[in-house]
Amino acid sequence: MHMLGSMQPIIVPASSELIARFPAAARADLIEWNSGETPDHFMQIVLNNQFDPTKRLNADTSIQVSDDHPMNEYYLLRQMLGHR
């Protein structure tokens, strides 16, 4: 799962527009093991499976989730390397 966040709304372009931005080598990689498919097909799958995080919120409105200091959380690496 990949999560993107922004202080402003994220405008998601059409799959064909996203694929047009890919380098030719990246487009080729997408279909390397799936002959007969198009890169646009795979991008449509990704875009059609967007997850609405509000559907996972607790029904109890007294429980709030906030994070005013977001960061990538590589817990295992931080523990192994002694970084906090």
Short description:
Helices cover 38% and strands 0% of the residues.
Detail the topology: elements first, then pairings.
Blueprint: H1 15-21, H2 24-31, H3 39-48, H4 75-81
Helix pairs in contact: 1-3
Explain what you see.
By secondary structure, this protein is an all-alpha fold. The protein has a domain of 43 residues. The protein contains four helices and no strands. The two termini are 24 Å apart. 2% of the residues are buried.
Q: What is the number of helices?
A: 4
Helix content: 25-40%
Task: Please describe the biggest sheet, giving its number of strands, its sense, and whether it closes into a barrel.
Answer: none
Low-pLDDT sequence parts: none
State the secondary-structure class. mainly alpha
Count of DSSP E strands?
0
The gross shape turns out to be: extended
**Chain-averaged pLDDT:** 83
**Strand coverage percent:** under 5%
- Distance separating the two termini: 24 Å
Order of helical and strand elements = HHHH
Query: What is the assembly state of the chains in this entry?
Result: single chain
**Which value, in Å, is the CA radius of gyration?**
18 Å
